[in-house]
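One-letter codes give the sequence; backbone shape is given numerically. An example follows:

. . .
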Amino acid sequence: MISVPRYLDYAATTPCSGEVLAAMIPFFTECYGNPNSLHIFGLKALDALESARKSVSDLISAEIEEIVFTSGATESSRMAIERTVTYLASKTGRNKFITTKSEHKSILDCADYLKSRDIEVIYLKVKSDGLIDFDHLVDILDESIGLMSICMVNNETGVLQDIGRIADLCHAKGTLLHSDATQGFGKIPINVKDLDVDFLSASGHKIYGPKGIGILFYKKSYKKFIRVPLANRDVEFGLRAGTVPVALCVGMGKASEFAKSTMATDLIRITNLRKLLLDNLFEALPEIHINGSVESNYPGIVNLSFRGCEGEALMMECKRIAVSSGSACTSNKLSISHVLEAMGTAPDIAQSSLRISIGKPTNDSDILIATEDLISATTKLRQMSPIWDMIKAGMDISSIFEGKHCAYAV
């Protein structure tokens, strides 16, 4: 009987902590009032809602009224990007939007929507380490661009962008900046005033809070860009419709409090676990590649390529750990991660990628088991792989790959 694998996929989601769950339960069963109601049940709910909003605002040094609760970072990003760009295009003539092809799919979906509305989308280049090309940004920024959106911490590689520098360059041209901070929120220090970001998105389930809740930070002066016409101004400042899920907001607030109190120690511990993982793997195996910047990253997300193996097969072979593959399998062909493709990663390296993400519960034992499984699985798959034989022989295998797809046999 196979035991439950060690979870190393915290970039995908995290378990809701017991403390967060305990804080939420009364607002499902006892204090269940609508925060817009004037009786005692509603007033208690309103008080809890505003307390949760303060906890979130304290985490990122925002003002309370600059935080709106949403269903998650995807909704937050859509609110900020689609509404702001549409507003600016109609009112100011700034009808262009900048992002990168290495963004989360939710941001790329926003870009596709804007293109359908005759908004010009400009894709900023990223370098081979995943960091943006600042020379290219300087070249393309002008007064016709309304908004730029850039991920603070990339969800696949953990690459950490210099948001403050990007904001300075954008604002010099009158361009606003949105950042999807989902993978950095509650894990690395974020001060929205110091960064001078105009909009910021995050989700609760990435920081041991509940699923179905997120936040959008927005500068107060830009509320008019994202306000919903004819919306009830008493519901999330007129920015959303419907009844506010107070229990989920309480959970987001409690998770934010814990994140703030443990962030410094968590970062040190996770950095040490990352080093343990990499030291063990690089000592035991040749031809392993770190995808993404080794200088500017969130240490809890590690994207590695094991040449001669296919990521999906490697993931399935590692029975004792739960990780993510950097490639998606479609019928008998394997698609390269769009993030790694945007970075210009060689196809065979991109095809062999895995994302390992470290969380609060991760310990040395988890990492040691992970390295044992990865070493064993890599060795086994390479023994069966003609690709690995060709790599060892020093052959150029690029011709085997056709575009984004490869018939990767093992």
Residues 246-284 form the longest helix (39 residues).
